[in-house]
Amino acid sequence: MAQVWKCTGLRWSSDGPVLVWDGGRRSALPWGKRVAFAVLEGGVRRCVGARGNGCPVQAAVSARSTGARCEECARLDRAHSVAADTIADDPRPYRVYLAWFGPGMVKVGITAVERESARLLEQGAVCFSWLGTGPLMAARRTEELLRAALKVPDRIPYVEKRAVRSALPATEVERALEVRELHARAVALPAWPESLRPAECRVVDHAGTFGLDRAPAAFGDVVELVPGGAVGGELVAAAGPDLHLAVEGHGVVVLDTRLMAGWELVPSDVPGGRLTLPVREFRREPEGLF
Questions:
Q1: CA separation for the pair 67, 74 (Å, rounded)
Q2: Most C-beta atoms within 10 A of its C-beta, which of 90, 240, 260, 271?
Q3: Which of 281, 242, 108, 247 has its CA nearest to residue 178?
Q4: Cβ of 272: how many Cβ atoms within 10 Å?
Q5: Order of strands, edge to edge, in the sheet holding 7-13?
Q6: CA 197 to CA 195: how far, in whole Å?
Q7: DSSP secondary-structure letter at 258?
Q8: DSSP character string of 190-223
């Protein structure tokens, strides 16, 4: 019987994306690498637990859940989380950022200074700029200020991020434009928190880091993994938790690696690529009549 693997997620290192497996083994993902696996026949997706502890009941979880956790483990995982806004006394300095994912899609967020730009890579931000630095609560107030005054969201669904990646502007100048404009409006707001030090607008572009500047556009994304289903193709790009795989006979499909967690996976060595998982095609804007 083939060795069974369990994926614990995609991480970003200084050398690029890395798949991490149960037990600590890591698989580097250079462009052109073949990524191929199948879900064990008759398999059931199980909860991955919370904060390094396994789920006590090994609960079955939805194939479409990106968290791969049962309700109780999800609650425990968010019980002490900056992202969930359950911490108010973290003494570390924080940065507020503006992240751009595609035309008309900018969000505001915060991350600890010590994490540098890791949070932006994890979210799949095509480009970003720091907005300011200060205590956690000042960073939170700035987030709320931008939401209220400028209608800037603090969350954007991944399905929307993926869809716009197939139609990104060609140049860094074009991709940076919305971030620069929003940065100028944000720092000019009269209610800016005094303890948050504004940062100069310096847009960092990740299109090359993600491989999006040279990869063919994707036609859709994998909706879920299913028992016996498989995918195999050449890695042409990656952004956030997503792998862009060129599958022979299909084109480029996006696989959210968070969907892999909780499944028992086995190698798939079908030559030329394989795709037997449900895929949702990205909606394309209809062309004008004239």
A1: 8
A2: 260
A3: 108
A4: 9
A5: 7-13, 16-21, 26-28
A6: 6
A7: G
A8: TT--TTSEE-----EE-HHHHTTTTSPPEEEEE-
pTM listed for this prediction: 0.91
- What are the backbone angles phi and psi of residue 134, rounded to the nearest 5°? 180, -170
Torsion of the alpha carbons at 271, 276, 278 and 283, rounded to the nearest 10 = 40
- Residue partners of 3: CB distance under 8 A and separation at least 6: 266, 267
CB atoms within 10 A of CB 145: 20
Report which residue type is found at 14.
S
State residue 287's pLDDT score.
44
Here the tokens at position 280 are 């949702």
Is the distance from CB of 125 to CB of 242 less than 8 angstroms? no
Q: Which residue has the tokens 């939805």?
A: 62
Kindly report the three-state secondary structure assignment for every residue of 120-171: HHHHCCCEEEEEEEECHHHHHHHHHHHHHHHCCCCCCCHHHHHHHHCCCCCC
Per-residue pLDDT, 83: 55
pLDDT tens digit sequence for 130-179? 999 999 999 999 999 999 999 999 999 998 999 899 889 999 999 999 99
Which tokens hold the place of 279?
A: 């895929």
Tokens (6 digits) for 45: 């997706």
Bridge partners, 231 (sequence order): 37, 275
**How much is the pLDDT for 84?**
47
Please tell me the distance from the alpha carbon of residue 9 to that of residue 124, in angstroms, as a whole number: 14
Give every residue of the chain whose pLDDT is below 50, as ranges: 84, 86, 286-290
| Tokens 């195999």, residue located | 232
Q: Is 259 helix (H, G, I), strand (E, B) or coil?
A: helix
Contact 26, 255 (CB under 8 A): no
The identity of residue 93, as a single letter, is P
Q: Are 63 and 45 in contact (CB under 8 A)?
A: yes
